[in-house]
Each structure stands twice: as structure tokens, then as C-alpha cells.
Amino acid sequence: MEINCVFAPATDTPDHIVLAEQLGYQRAWVYDVPVSYADTGATLGIAATRTSTIRLGVSVFTEHLRHITTNAGLIAHLATLAPGRFDAGVGAGFTSSAYLGRKGSRWADVERYVEDLRTLLAGGEIERDGTVLSLMHMPASGISLPVEVDFWVAAHGPKGFATAGRLGAGVVTNPTHGDEPVPFDGQCQLTYYGTVLEDGEALDSRRVIDAAGAGAGLALHMGQYGPLAGMPEAEGYHEAIAAVDERHRHLELFRGHLMEPSDLDRQFLTGDVIRRGTLTGTRDEIAASLQRLVEAGANAVLYQPSGPDIPRELAAFLEVAEQFRDTPGTSSPNTTASPASEVQHA
């Protein structure tokens, strides 16, 4: 089982990616939300020049935020800086759509988007809006086509999994697929939010709220469609966000998304919300969670550290994960055992 990490990128994320490589993480990805995070390309460009073995990637590109040629050019540049170790995730758009007040893309459009990106990176031509498009890097640019990268699809339902299967891509998803294992046979990474508790540490301590609050905030944002369904905190958050002016509600809903809890989020972050909305736990509890993820069909876990002490989060989680992998009888996929629904997750 691969132990990977993903960041809501900040200006110090390149330092954290260097540390992740030193610690032994196999991949380090960043989210792509330019209205909230440090720039994706600048972050990974710096990290690429300071690392040599860890795989870098974006989770995920969408067609909402940039023209397809801009994303293709960025992928080509990053893959050149990190040859043989760049991953490109693509999705229908959840956060990026919400920030723009739009709905996500249709899966047929996502499939075409990946196919067109592959064509552009191979040096071919595509047609969009009646215009022929191509990447045209000359030798002086330092970028040579074709460029080969591994593609991943952010999928959370049957249409997304089917799209990934047709594309021959890996899947990035979460462990909330009902009473059945993840319905995908290829490479599958399950996201993991939360913090490793110190001995005797309370779930509602200041450190835990700061470190796990961003992941729990996502659960609040999901409301009745997420792991906090039926909880008074989820209902209270829903009422509070509904009171925000409609023209700005979509902005407040995702303020601080997966980076740090907003002032509104913090009003509803309790120990119970941390417990149900993230995979926070003791070392033994996190090892048990990792085993359930393996049994749900994960080939890899994609851990997102957050809070004021990212180095501590990276080191603590990897220590638990490595002990888990080294324990006899663990890490053997068994798709007939413990369903993913047993894992509370945002």
C-alpha cells in the first residue's frame, strides 16, 4: 500500500514536499484552487527542482478554471521539470465549480477533456469551438513533445469509475461507497483527513481542532450528504450558511476549504464532528482505519496534513502507516471484508 500525501498549497508547501520525500512518502500532490491556495504551477515547479524521487501531481485539473491549452502547457512544463514522476488528476469539478457558482462537468465532457489533453501532450491537434488547437513548443522553450504523464480521475460514483476505466486511468476517491468495496479494479487512492492523537489527547483540544478542523469543515459543508448527516452541528451549520446573502453564499460555503476552518466553521467544530467528519484517532485507531481502507480496495492512501504544524502531521501519520505496513497480517486486500462505509470520512 502506497502512503502518499496531498496539500492545500501554501507558499511553504515546497518545503513540506521536500520533507515528505525525506520522510519516505511516495507521492506529493497539490489541490488546484487558485482563488484560495498558492499557485499550483509555481508550487510544484519549485518542488520539482528541489526533489528527485517523490512523484508530484495535481488533484485535480478541471475545465472550469483555465483553457485546456493552458492546463496542457502547465502539465508539459511540470512533467519536464520532474521527468517520469508527474501525475495529472482530472475531475468534474466540486470546489472549483462551487467557487464559480457553477455545476460540475458532465462525465462525458471529463472523458473528452482527458483524451484531448493526451492528444495535445502527444503533439497532436484538437478542435474546440470550431478552432484547431495544438501545443507548439520549440526547442528553445526547453519543453519537448511528446510528454507522457499518468492520468487519474477524481471519481465518487459509478459514472466516474466507468470513465476512469475507459480511460485506463487511476482513481482518486474517498471511503464512502456504501456497504460495498470501492467498485474499481485499477489503481485507487483513498483520501484521508485527520490527525494522529497524542496519548490522552482530547478530540476537542485546540491542537486537534487546528489540525483536523479543515477536514471536518468539509464534512460540515457536505451537510446532510456527508458523514455528519443528522447531527445538530450539521443542521446548525446549514442554517447559518443559509442566512448568508445568496449572492455570496457560494463563497462563504468554501472559505478556507481544506486549508483551515473559517470563523463560521469553527462555531460548529466539536469533538463529535472531528470524530465523525475525519479519520482522526489514536495510533491503533488509525492503523485499524488503514486496514479497512485496504479491505475496501485501496492501493494507496492520500493523506492531507493541515494545521499550523504540517511537519508534525506528516511525520506522525507516516510513522503509524509504516508500522501498519510492517505488521504481519495487514495490508492484504480483501474485497469481501470490512466495507468502506464503516470508515467515517468527509
TrEMBL record:
It comes from the Bacteria. It holds the Pfam family Bac_luciferase. Its EC number is 1.-.-.-. Residues 327-346 have a biased composition (Low complexity). Keywords: Oxidoreductase. The keyword Oxidoreductase applies. Residues 10-176 form the Luciferase-like domain. Gene3D superfamilies: Luciferase-like domain (3.20.20.30). Transmembrane segments: none annotated. The keyword Calcium does not apply. Residues 325-346 are annotated as: Disordered. GO terms for molecular function: oxidoreductase activity. It is an enzyme of class 1 (oxidoreductase). PANTHER family: 5,10-METHYLENETETRAHYDROMETHANOPTERIN REDUCTASE (PTHR43244:SF1), PTHR43244. This is LLM class flavin-dependent oxidoreductase.
